[in-house]
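Data card: per-record layout.
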Amino acid sequence: MKIVVVGTGYVGLVSGVCFSDFGHEVICVDTNQDKVDMLRRGEVPIFEPNLDTLMRSNMEAGRLSFSTDLKSSLEAVDAVFIAVGTPTRRGDGHADLQYVFAAAEEIARSLSDYAVVVTKSTVPVGTNRQIADIMAEAVPGLEFDVCSNPEFLREGAAIEDFMRPDRVVIGIESDRAAEVMDAIYRPLSLRDYPVVKTDLETAELIKYAANAFLATKITFINEMAALCERVGADIQQVAKGMGLDGRIGNKFLHAGPGYGGSCFPKDTMALARIGQEHASPMRIVETVIDVNERVKARMIDKIVDLCDDDLAGKKIAVLGVTFKPNTDDMRDAPSLTIIPALVGRGAEVRVVDPQGQAEGEALLPNVKWIENPYRAANNADAIVVLTEWNEFRGLNLERLAKKMNSPRMADLRNVYKREQVLAAGFERYVPVGIG
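The structure for this 435-residue chain is written out next.
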């Protein structure tokens, strides 16, 4: 099959590379010439484990290429995937669909024969029908079908998620389009990975419902963590006891500083707005959004308390600023709320992150970027573990404590144990959800 992917952001690039690894001919199209040139050189503009190796191998095999010319790329195409951004719109929380609609119109004007137009971007209910209307209006008589095929990729594990998915969701309404989508995903269906076929609206909602539910699990365990601290309980044991119930499961039950990233914040906000527009308020989701912000504020209070309620002139080493490990993504990371609050209270903040500096320098002004935790700990008054990178899980705690002016730790990911940290020479240790 010949596939064109419009957009070489996180979803578009991962999808294009993985489709080419299935054996399809794939052209990834982007309007950014510098980005396309970089990709043609085999350089990946994002950090995703093993993506660079897989991309280069498929380029060398002749199955994967990059272009800025959509019209020529669409010649004899079977399917064209829209994978452009849908950021939260300023002011109202809606998903901004301008890039999706612009791509749809350009695709319509560039197609010469039938193709399936597949929306990979996360879009609100009704968007795919709007895409169909835009294309039909742009080029009356054009033959095409529209399909909803939401992505379920975890940053840091995207290739594994694409190649071994929990499920593939396809919203579709014609047999002709179904045949094309079956051929595209045949490598997965042959290995019995579930393929869920449904109508357009249902496929659009599955994506939002899944992300909102996961965000709810995270927020619930964070509220339970606050209660545990009040009553003297242990959130890790509470989560273990909950997670052993097969109806609940143990994933996304790790207490921390709140969710962030490219999906949960914007998708919960968008789902809340969808509910309001259709007179069916998503009260639980609205509460999740509010509580997640309060969780971040509670983390700030923990750090302030650790420093005796006075951050002025205090040197604080922050370990990790990306929203999760194994990614360079800073979008809506808790660090973007927590670190500015520390700086605003007069702290000198030193930051260590294996991948976050390139994006983080512009987002976190007035901090010092340090290459390793031990240098960051020199004469520090506190260490804050904010992202659970593997590099931060096995630190020499005695060495850290000896370097610090006041050896104290706020472990906002519960990476360590209290007795372990105190035995290494730390004066105080503040975890999350352990009273």
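Known properties of this structure: The chain has a mean pLDDT of 96. The two ends are 57 Å apart (CA to CA).

See the next section for split statistics.
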